[in-house]
């Protein structure tokens, strides 16, 4: 059966200060439709790079391997085409856009994606209604839609804003890159609920995290451990709890 | 519609040619021979049927100009201009004198239609408010090369007591007003280009708003250069009496040509007690091609005098065109408590050069000025903000706030900020802030991950950067300006 997302033998490197640095060294990963998978792993193991490569960031050069997304060659697509195809990346550090109104940004993005998907664009009134409802569900202050994109937002507000964008863009595949880092328990629950509301037989997610806490709310299907640019171990939800208690060291030495 | 969508659509419509105003109008012209001398000045003066004092004023300016040299202090470079190789007068061959719209050459009307400038008045019926979304009526003075070809809504304005007419007509019909104010803000010998303009100016607008009158509609002048090898020397004078106010906008375009053309304008504003003038410019002269061939040399002197107490002059400019821009709209803050403002967006792409900024001269007590200058450079272009804030000894309590932000796109362009601050009063407060930033890969990738194309992402980020200035423009023009920004930067990324 053809998988929802199929990553095979993915190698990627980055040009850092004139020196080429290999970061992904043969990543193999399959995610079936409707499942939430988690990637854990020590710092520097390539987790964020994997999310950037999947989303199409140009700084990274894919040297070999392939990624099939719902049967399409994901690596051949522009970042905005991937977004239109249903891929969403919640950034670890959301970017500030000075002078750009948050509601205007969201509506421009939503309509760009709707246009690409052959759906009708939303007018200002319809969009604002939708956005206000979504913001309320995420316990966001109403003025966040009026403020400039992520400018002067607290860490927690930025993460909520990412989840708001995800809610409005209706992706079929969401990557959450440490969206839980630096969040208090309440914010953590809001993020998890945001993902859970999207859960459907046609929606999958890849969640990068260090903490068991988020997984208590998310209930993942599979856990993968990444180290030195590869997936070294995969298992059920119990694997995350084991890591939480024992750390990575044991798994790393076993894999070596 | 969000800005980015609108700009994207505007860009798509344009297809390959970025400068859509680059067409030429084929019309029979009355052209003065090339060259600059007293004879040519006499010719211009007689074509305009000017009184003797006007001719004398021109000739005095010409003699002053002859003793002057091109200013060299701006950060722009261009080959020496041969002032004898230019036509100083070019006019469509039509009947002279005041004319109604019916008499205007259809070829000209068509030109303005193509440019999107409304020269028809049917939109305004007495007492009928335009439906929502419809253009509010704007009175337009259309200047084609050296002459004004039409001025709309003159009757409506006259009923309110407002004079809005070509300056050549004002010289004939309202000599006492023109004589009282012309050259009092920008003296004929102020600088090289102002002296040149004073000698050979051909047309521009004259606005007079009497005491206590709020001008009932936006006024605008649309300048079009069409003829080859001609210079355009516009002269605009706006006088607003006690307690009166006006909002005025100018726009400019020219055909695409390989040779450079000269535009040297002088604009003078006078505001009396409690008067207010809002002067907005959307400058879109042909900027030359990607290799830097052709384009307008734009050497402009713009200055406003806040003569009365609590008067206010506000300059807003969006500068996207011209091969070279040399322009410093300024305020002389003479009246006690008067206010000067300067909001500017200057965009340069390809090989364009811009040296632009402002001067705020604080003479009176408790005078205030605000300067917000946004500079965007792309391609191989070079852009400089040059500004002077001067506080004279008597200007106690004067305040100035200046903010200069530069945005660089790509790695072959330059942005420079040259602020001059001269403070001669200890009780004044002067603040200056400046930033330089690049559109980061992070910002572009963030937008694209959300589904925006690269062009839309740049448009969104640039419009965000300029927001503080764009919000000062009259609403209709703010939308135009946003489109223009995106078009000017087309192809600057990637």
UniProtKB/TrEMBL annotation, chain A:
SUPFAM superfamilies assigned: P-loop containing nucleoside triphosphate hydrolases
Against PROSITE patterns, the record matches this protein to: ABC_TRANSPORTER_1, ABC_TRANSPORTER_2
Give the matching Pfam families: ABC_tran
Nucleotide-binding as a keyword of this entry, yes or no, is yes
Occurrences of domain ABC transporter (ranges): 5-253
> Would you say which domain of life the source belongs to?
Bacteria
Per UniProt, the keywords (alphabetical) are:
ATP-binding, Nucleotide-binding
- InterPro entries from the xrefs? AAA+_ATPase (IPR003593), ABC_transporter-like_ATP-bd (IPR003439), ABC_transporter-like_CS (IPR017871), FeS-cluster_ATPase_SufC (IPR010230), P-loop_NTPase (IPR027417)
Q: Does the keyword Nucleotide-binding apply?
A: yes
Kindly give the NCBIfam families that the UniProt entry links to this protein.
Answer: sufC (TIGR01978)
- Stored PANTHER family: ABC TRANSPORTER I FAMILY MEMBER 6, CHLOROPLASTIC
Family note: Belongs to the ABC transporter superfamily. Ycf16 family.
Q: How is this protein named in the record?
A: Fe-S cluster assembly ATPase SufC
Q: Which gene encodes it?
A: sufC
From TrEMBL, chain B:
Coiled-coil stretches are none
Q: Could you list the residue ranges that cross the membrane?
A: none
**Domain SUF system FeS cluster assembly SufBD core: from-to ranges:** 223-465
Domain SUF system FeS cluster assembly SufBD N-terminal: where? 154-215
Q: Which domain of life is it from?
A: Bacteria
**Can you tell me which family this protein belongs to?**
Belongs to the iron-sulfur cluster assembly SufBD family.
Q: Give the PANTHER family listed for this entry.
A: FES CLUSTER ASSEMBLY PROTEIN SUF, UPF0051 PROTEIN ABCI8, CHLOROPLASTIC-RELATED
| Official protein name in the record | Fe-S cluster assembly protein SufB
């Amino acid at each position: 059966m053809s998988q929802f997302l199929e990553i095979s033998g993915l190698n990627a490197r980055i040009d850092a200060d004139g020196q080429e640095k290999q970061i992904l060294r043969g990543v193999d990963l399959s995610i079936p439709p409707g499942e939430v998978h988690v990637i854990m792993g020590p710092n520097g193991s390539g987790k964020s790079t994997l999310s950037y490569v999947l989303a199409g960031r140009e700084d990274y050069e894919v040297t070999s391997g392939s990624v099939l997304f719902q049967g399409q060659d994901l690596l051949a697509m522009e970042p905005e085409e991937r977004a239109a195809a249903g891929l969403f990346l919640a950034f670890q550090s959301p970017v500030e856009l000075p002078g750009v109104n948050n509601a205007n940004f969201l509506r421009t993005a939503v309509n760009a994606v709707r246009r690409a998907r052959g759906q009708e664009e939303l007018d200002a009134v319809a969009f604002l209604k939708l956005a206000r409802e979504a913001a309320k569900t995420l316990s966001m202050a109403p003025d966040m839609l009026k403020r400039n994109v992520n400018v002067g937002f607290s860490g927690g507000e930025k993460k909520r804003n990412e989840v708001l964008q995800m809610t409005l863009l209706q992706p079929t595949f969401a990557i959450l890159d440490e969206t839980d880092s630096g969040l208090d328990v309440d914010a953590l629950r809001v993020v998890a609920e945001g993902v859970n509301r999207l859960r459907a037989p046609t929606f999958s997610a890849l969640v990068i995290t260090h903490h068991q806490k988020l997984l208590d709310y998310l209930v993942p299907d599979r856990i993968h451990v990444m180290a030195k640019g590869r997936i070294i171990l995969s298992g059920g939800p119990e694997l995350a709890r084991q890591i939480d208690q024992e750390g990575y060291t044991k798994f790393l030495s076993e894999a070596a | 519609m969000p800005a980015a969508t609108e700009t994207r659509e505007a860009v798509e419509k344009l297809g390959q040619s970025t400068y859509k105003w680059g067409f030429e109008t084929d019309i029979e012209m009355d052209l003065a021979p090339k060259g600059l001398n007293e004879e040519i000045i006499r010719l211009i003066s007689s074509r305009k049927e000017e009184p003797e004092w006007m001719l004398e004023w021109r000739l005095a300016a010409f003699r002053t100009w002859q003793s002057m040299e091109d200013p060299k202090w701006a950060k722009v470079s261009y080959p020496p201009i041969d002032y004898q190789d230019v036509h100083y007068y070019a006019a469509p061959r039509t009947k002279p004198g005041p004319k109604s719209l019916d008499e205007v050459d259809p070829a000209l009307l068509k030109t303005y239609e193509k440019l999107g400038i409304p020269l028809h008045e049917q939109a305004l019926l007495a007492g009928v408010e335009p439906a929502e979304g419809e253009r509010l009526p704007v009175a337009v003075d259309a200047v084609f090369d050296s002459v004004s070809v039409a001025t709309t809504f003159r009757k409506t304005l006259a009923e309110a007591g407002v004079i809005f007419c070509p300056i050549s007509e004002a010289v004939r019909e309202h000599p006492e007003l023109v004589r009282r104010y012309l050259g009092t803000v920008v003296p004929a010998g102020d600088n090289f280009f102002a002296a040149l303009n004073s000698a050979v100016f051909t047309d521009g607008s004259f606005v007079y708003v009497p005491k206590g009158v709020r001008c009932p509609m936006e006024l605008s002048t649309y300048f079009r250069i069409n003829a080859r090898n001609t210079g355009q020397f516009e002269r605009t004078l706006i006088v607003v009496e006690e307690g009166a106010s006006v909002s005025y906008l100018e726009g400019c375009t020219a055909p695409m040509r390989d040779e450079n053309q000269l535009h040297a304008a002088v604009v003078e504003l006078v505001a009396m007690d409690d008067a207010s003038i809002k002067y907005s410019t959307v400058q879109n002269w042909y900027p030359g091609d990607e290799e830097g061939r052709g384009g307008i040399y734009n050497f402009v002197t713009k200055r406003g005098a806040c003569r009365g107490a609590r008067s206010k002059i506000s300059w807003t400019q969006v500068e996207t065109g011209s091969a070279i821009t040399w322009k410093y709209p300024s305020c002389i803050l003479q009246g006690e408590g008067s206010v000067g403002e300067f909001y500017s967006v200057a965009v340069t792409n390809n090989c364009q050069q811009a040296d632009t900024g402002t001067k705020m001269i604080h003479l009176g007590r408790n005078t205030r000025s605000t300067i917000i200058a946004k500079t965007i450079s792309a391609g191989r272009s070079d852009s400089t903000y040059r500004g002077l804030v001067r506080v004279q000894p008597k200007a106690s309590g004067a305040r100035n706030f200046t903010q200069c932000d530069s945005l660089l796109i790509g790695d072959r362009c330059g942005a420079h900020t040259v602020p001059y601050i001269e403070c001669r009063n200890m009780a004044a407060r002067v603040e200056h802030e400046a930033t330089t930033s690049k559109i980061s890969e992070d910002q572009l990738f963030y937008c694209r991950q959300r589904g925006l194309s690269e062009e839309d992402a740049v448009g969104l980020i640039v419009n965000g950067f300029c927001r503080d200035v764009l919000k000062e423009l009259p609403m209709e023009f703010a939308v135009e300006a946003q489109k223009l920004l995106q078009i000017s930067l087309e192809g600057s990324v990637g």
